[in-house]
Design goal:
956 residues
Length: 956
């Protein structure tokens, strides 16, 4: 017994001496030991990998700075055993018993969620690789994310979906903080590219295989075939095996996994990898380097030595983040120069819990700032914390093929998707599937899945069709007399069948469901029919359904397959030729007045030019006024016979005759047109006239046209609805005053069909369009992936000429109705604008001739104008008398010249000839008494005999 006690004392003495020796050694080197906690799940492979990386990081750091460092981290490792409570308990233990200045770990977001509160309370930095976006360093200042935020991967995921044009996805996530955190970010990112998250499926980590099968069978009933999976390997191992089992890893399916699962593919069993063939994934890109290759080799040796039972596992970015985080902490501890001070305890510890009695770290704030400022080139790339977390700019896109993954491209925020990670700086941001390497899709196919399918083994596409009577050419719904099967026919149905059965590159089974009551009557109007899609009763609506803005709030429409707009059907007026004043209608009133003014003005100008030289334009005042009107209006029928002497008047008349020729020709042509065509003018030209005059208007029953009339503020009691063309004819024939209508508004395809009938085209015509619409289209649920494909198919049907063939089949050739053709060319009255140029030429010639004539006259009478002894009134009277005197023209002067060759002896008292040149005018003496004028005798004596030789120059 004594020997045993002696042996125990000897062991204790040795232990005490060893501890003293080690303490003396650290004291002699001057190193300050800094306690740091390490909390990892050592029961899984990631925890083991991270532990090895962290220890190697500290070894490498202190080996590189052997002579320079003044501190040394002492790790205290605790296994959290993949349990939240164990992780929290480990943190409290480290803080209470070891007073650690920082904690590395934990790995899981659920564990970190509680621990960061502990770090905030004790001012101890928590450095974790937890990726959940719900953990925010900005809200928790003592939380340092030593990895990237999980939300940073949503951009490359959205870029992939956009590159392949998928319009819908289903999100499958793990029902934990890790899984739920990324959901809102993914949804917003997909909405930003026009893709909807059709459904979100939360999978419990403890879900049984039966529950997984149940969820997968539910997914098989969806049309959507693109699935984004955000789960950890433990759940993924069971999930994808069941996916393979139910046949959902086959043709037409798309599976995309998020970064954590892509990173940890090596941890999955080979059987699981085999069930994931064709899956796409993203993960952070790690640039290769010699340092990384050297470390990887060293890590493999040490990891296998520490974990001999694990034979297949490769180093990934999670281990590199752990390595870089430990290195950053060591650098921060060295830079902050932490002293021996530990935790500051509360002043009184009475009645405090163990956690409250821990206190807080005095060195924590300084260490936290030192960590955030640390920046270096690590194994995972650039280690740079922004807002307390690593930044990641490049992602690698992989395709699971064979036993592992194959790189097919990269995504970077600067340039989008690309095959090459090194791109020129001028590369544009792209999201194109051509920028990726060839992909092998599920089912070992190379054709890109379209992203949706009609569920096999389930109901067909439920297509609602309207039920109506009357006009059957567009759509008609009947039931088979024996089988009661729905039989839908008509133009709209044939277009739909052509698109679905012959133009789409894939098969879509469908069946028609009439929108009717049990007794076969319409169950509502077209708005009610379209709304059934929103309620989930129908998957589509096909028929003469007009694309309207209010309907597009509930459904998505394809491109239209008919003409757009709304027009009016009105009666043709047939009383044009019975109008006694129709001869006045070819010309507008302003043109009539202008012509009259020019007739009078032209006659006046010609009279001015001819009055002094032409005897036919002289005489009593009444005769002269008559000649003015007679000459000008006689040119209308080219019946003027007056001989013109002045060259200016000849010029004026030539121009005016040309104007008259154009006017009479235009008048004749337009009058002829009116006498034959005017009877085809519509009785109504504007819907506002109908409203103002209180006329009745008809519309097709069950359509949106009733709402259109209401929007146009039309009095609804003044509207009547009809269903057949025969009813249209009867209502229009009777008119508003006899229980009918003045006009019927309808969509353009119906109007053209109505007027194509010879029975109606002679009596009615179209007015409008009066309202624009987008035409007929097929309706589908909001965000339906069928819409873009069917729209493209409609374009192919239209451009290929098949639509024209269908139109001819149902509507026949368009009627060649002479009345309708004439109605389209109805002549309107000509107005002044049409002849502005013509009248401008005429006015220019008239005014120019008048100015030249008056200028010549004023020049010849300049003596009178220059007189200073007379008033203005006296001058005007003298000028008027001179203008009224006849001037000998050149023709009369030539006669007088021949007679003047003979010498004549005139008595001294013989009066002078009344005709004389202006140059021979005597000087005028004016008196104020009689306002008249007399001549004074020339001082030169008058000879008894005068030889007269007159030479008179003709004046124009």
């Amino acid at each position: 017994m004594q020997k045993q006690w002696l042996l125990l004392l000897l062991v204790m003495s040795c232990y005490y001496n060893i501890v003293q020796l080690l303490g003396a050694q650290n004291a002699s080197t001057g190193l300050i030991e800094v306690d740091v906690g390490l909390i990892l799940d050592l029961d899984n492979i990631v925890g083991k990998m991270s532990r090895t990386c962290i220890y190697m990081a500290l070894d490498d750091f202190y080996a590189l700075h052997d002579q320079n460092h003044t501190t040394r981290i002492v790790l205290h490792t605790i296994d959290s055993k993949s349990d939240v409570v164990e992780a929290a308990s480990a943190a409290i233990d480290l803080l209470k018993n070891f007073q650690v200045q920082a904690i590395l770990g934990p790995q899981k977001s659920t564990q970190a969620d509680f621990m960061i509160d502990i770090g905030k309370k004790t001012q101890v930095p928590i450095i974790s690789q937890a990726t959940s976006p719900t953990l925010s360093p900005s809200d928790n200042p003592y939380f340092i994310r030593g990895g990237q935020n999980g939300s940073s991967q949503v951009e490359p995921l959205a870029a992939m979906v956009k590159a392949f044009g998928w319009r819908e996805v289903v999100l499958i996530y793990e029902d934990t903080n890790f899984g739920r955190g990324i959901g809102p970010y993914l949804t917003d990112s997909f909405l930003g590219i026009g893709t909807q998250v059709r459904s979100r499926i939360a999978m419990s980590v403890s879900a049984t295989d039966d529950h997984i099968l149940q969820e997968l069978n539910k997914l098989k009933t969806f049309q959507t075939r693109v699935f984004v999976v955000h789960v950890l390997p433990s759940l993924a191992s069971r999930f994808f095996l069941k996916v393979k089992e139910v046949g959902m890893m086959s043709k037409g399916y798309v599976w995309i996994i998020t970064d954590v699962l892509t990173i940890l593919l090596d941890s999955l069993d080979a059987k699981v990898i085999n069930s994931m063939q064709g899956v796409l994934g993203v993960k952070p890109y790690v640039p290769n380097s010699n340092k990384l290759q050297n470390f990887t080799q060293r890590w493999r040796k040490r990891f296998r030595r520490e974990n001999p039972d694990l034979d297949r596992f490769e180093l990934n970015v999670l281990g590199l983040w752990a390595y870089d985080s430990a290195t950053a902490l060591a650098m921060a501890v060295e830079r902050s120069r932490i002293g021996q001070s530990k935790f500051k305890k509360p002043v009184s510890t009475n009645n405090l819990t163990d956690f409250a009695a821990i206190g807080y770290s005095e060195m924590g704030p300084g260490l936290l700032q030192a960590i955030k400022k640390t920046k270096f080139r690590g194994l995972s790339g650039e280690f740079h914390l922004v807002d307390g977390q690593l930044q990641q700019s490049t992602f690698q896109i992989v395709n699971i093929i064979g036993k592992g993954e194959t790189e097919i491209g990269f995504w970077a925020r600067e340039y989008g998707i690309s095959k090459n990670k090194r791109l020129p700086f001028n590369k544009n941001d792209t999201n194109d599937k051509e920028d990726l390497e060839a992909i092998i899709w599920p089912g070992r196919l190379h054709v890109v899945p379209k992203g949706w399918e009609i569920p096999t083994g389930e109901r067909k596409l439920r297509v609602g069709v309207p039920v109506k009577s009357g006009i059957d050419e567009f759509i008609k719904v009947e039931r088979h007399p024996q089988t009661k099967a729905v039989i839908a026919t008509g133009f709209c149905i044939d277009v739909f069948k052509e698109v679905m059965d012959h133009t789409l590159p894939f098969a879509v089974p469908y069946e028609f469901f009439p929108f009717e009551t049990p007794n076969g009557e319409p169950a509502g109007d077209y708005n009610d029919l379209v709304y059934q899609i929103y309620l989930g009763k129908y998957d589509a609506v096909v028929g003469d359904v007009t694309i309207l803005a209010n309907r597009s709030n509930f459904v998505d429409f394809t491109l239209p397959f008919t003409e757009s707009s709304v027009a009016m059907i009105v009666r043709i007026k047939d009383d044009g030729r019975k109008n006694a004043w129709i001869f006045m209608k070819p010309l507008k009133m302003n043109l009539w007045l202008t012509i009259v003014v020019f007739f009078v003005f032209t006659g006046f100008v010609v009279w001015v030019l001819e009055h002094r030289v032409n005897k036919e334009f002289r005489g009593p005042p009444g005769k002269q006024v008559g000649i003015i009107f007679w000459f000008s209006f006689s040119t209308l029928v080219f019946a003027h016979k007056e001989k013109l002497i002045s060259n200016l008047s000849r010029f004026v008349v030539i121009v005016w005759v040309f104007v008259v020729l154009v006017l009479t020709s235009s008048y004749t042509a337009n009058l002829t047109s009116m006498l034959t065509v005017q009877k085809l003018q519509p009785s109504v030209t504007d819907i506002r006239d109908l409203r103002k005059n209180g006329e009745y208007v008809g519309y097709h029953n069950g359509t949106f046209l009733k709402g259109l009339l209401k929007r146009e503020e039309f009095n609804l009691p003044k509207s009547r609805h009809y269903s057949t063309f025969e009813q249209y004819d009867d209502a229009l024939s009777r008119g508003s005053k006899n229980g009918g209508v003045a006009a019927i508004i309808h969509e353009l395809p119906y109007v053209r069909l109505f007027l194509s009938n010879h029975k109606y085209c002679t009596k009615y015509t179209m007015v409008g369009p009066i309202y624009m619409t987008a035409g007929f289209g097929f309706a589908f649920p909001k965000g339906s992936p069928l819409v873009p494909d069917i729209s493209r198919a409609i374009l192919n049907v239209t451009e290929g000429g098949k639509l024209t063939q269908i139109q001819r089949q149902w509507f026949g050739q368009e009627a060649e109705c002479a009345e309708q053709d004439g109605a389209k060319t109805t002549s309107d009255s000509l107005n002044l604008k049409s002849f502005k140029g013509l009248f401008l030429v005429a006015a220019t010639s008239l005014i120019s001739a008048l100015i030249i004539s008056l200028s010549t006259f004023l020049y010849d009478n300049r003596v009178i104008l220059a007189s200073n002894e007379s008033s203005i009134w006296q001058k005007l009277i003298a000028m008027a008398k001179n203008f009224d005197e006849e001037e000998v023209n050149s023709y009369d002067a030539s006669k007088k010249t021949n007679r003047a060759n003979e010498v004549m002896v005139v008595p001294a008292n013989c009066p002078q000839s009344p005709t004389r040149n202006n140059s021979q005018l005597a000087e005028w003496n004016f008196t104020d008494d009689d306002q008249g004028f007399t001549t004074t005798e020339n001082s030169t004596p008058i000879h008894e005999t005068i030889e007269i030789v007159e030479t008179i120059e003709a004046k124009d």
